């Protein structure tokens, strides 16, 4: 058999060609999911940018150590990440977290309210974030798959738009970058899992207000206050332009406050001379319009409570400005009288809005009072909580009527207002008595509950007699429903009390028959599984459930046997001295013994 001829070794060009034919490994990163998970789990759920920045630093340190991509010992040695460096997907994570760290540092400075020097530093961190985001997009286009490259491009466009939006130099370019981000996420939201589509939808909703803000700035149209308030939402993206919205709103209020010269309340007019007082009162009045607008029924209760808090803050600012003016007014009696009247009017409006806020809390508590415990294990309102809320309402109405009726002579509007809120106080007393009766009923006190239901009904009937000619039809309807509830509940309590009285002799005889001189034994559910006796107790009592005895009782157990070694004393052991090692003694030790 002939020997085959030796093959010549391949040339260098053939080796390079074979290497070029080797398939390129493409990395895959779900950029939006990675960013959202990192932000929500490490501080940004609560707007804590400092915690998120520290997490990015820790994450980078772990990535450097795992990749052995360190920067020298003792002296820092810069190592760039290029296309040839990226041999693992974790190198792309390093670039991503560098961008996130710079961005979170900039947002930390922004939310802290930076001065001129800190603003320069903040813009520098935004530029650093744009630099790392651009590098991340470039490396993903070379080393990542198509989806990763597209998401990285959207991420870089968002960072560029953020920088331009904050600089306020090129709003058109900022809007273009935000539109590019929206277009990418609109396309990505059409595919993938449901979770990914929801994330893309959330990202689009975050970018939309920024695009609207930029388009209004470019169009030169006036930014209306209600439109700006609609832009205020929660989340990391909204923190970017929250300060801008507040600045625009304050500028708009200052322009409108220039024409506001007096404050009207119950037919009286009070002049306003301080510009800060005007702005604060105007802010509160605009929030009141949003609260009492046409679409308030669709606004959730939590958002309404937030608007109430802003109204209280604005009126408190106005009161502080008025009292500062009072302190600096000196002995000018006419100025002091005007400021005292304005202070009293603002305090009255504050009390009026406090009553409205507490009535909202009552409506929320009532909706949970009749609700059964559902799958979400939502907390059910107890009658004691409603009693406490009505106590607050009664105190608020008393304070408000005392404030309005004090001092000067009252006009017709003030007298009408006082009479209206005295009747409302009577209605609040009836509601408080009703829920106090409910509290006694849940505790099994039938006589007290029956008496309180009857008393609540008498208060309700007297209030209805005084409201016969009242234009407030809603209050009259509520009082009618309350009177009917008091009547039906009083009948129920009366009947339940009679039934319990009829069962008293039977329970007494049963209890006497089970009396014994020995130790009383409680019946637990695990001890009587064969019988159909309840171990939960009655529904109207607060006795604990008897499911099992805990801690369990002691049981006698046999002890271990005691072993006595009786043979030890009878054994004769052999002599082993010959096996013991003898101690060698020297001459002196022998001499001295």
What does this structure look like?
- Keywords: Cytoplasm, Endoplasmic reticulum, Nucleus, Ribonucleoprotein, RNA-binding, Signal recognition particle.
- It is found in: Cytoplasm; Endoplasmic reticulum; Nucleus, Nucleolus.
- Pfam families: SRP68 (PF16969).
- By secondary structure, the chain is mainly alpha-helical.
- Helices cover 65% and strands 1% of the residues.
- The chain has helices spanning 12-21, 31-41, 49-67, 89-111, 116-143, 146-167, 171-188, 194-219, 225-231, 239-257, 275-291, 301-328, 333-369, 383-405, 412-442, 446-466, 473-513, 587-591; strands at 262-265, 268-271.
- Helix 5 (116-143) packs antiparallel against helix 6, helix 13 (333-369) runs antiparallel to helix 14 (383-405) and helix 14 (383-405) packs antiparallel against helix 15 (412-442).
- The longest helix is centred in the C-terminal third of the chain and has 41 residues, at 473-513.
- The protein is flat.
- The relative contact order is 0.04.
Main features:
disordered N terminus; 2 strands; mainly alpha; endoplasmic reticulum signal peptide binding; SRP68; 593 residues; 3 domains; Hyaluronidase domain-like; single chain; two-stranded antiparallel ribbon
Question: Unreliable runs, pLDDT <50, ≥5 residues?
Answer: 1-7, 12-22, 222-227
| CA-CA gap between termini | 101 Å
Q: Could you state the CATH homologous superfamily of the largest domain?
A: Signal recognition particle, SRP68 subunit, RNA-binding domain
Determine the mean pLDDT.
82
**SSE order in H/E notation?**
HHHHHHHHHHEEHHHHHHHH
Q: How helix-rich are the residues, as a percent range? A: 55-70%
Main location: cytoplasm
InterPro entries: SRP68, SRP68-RBD, SRP68_N_sf
GO cellular component, one term: signal recognition particle, endoplasmic reticulum targeting
Family: Belongs to the SRP68 family.
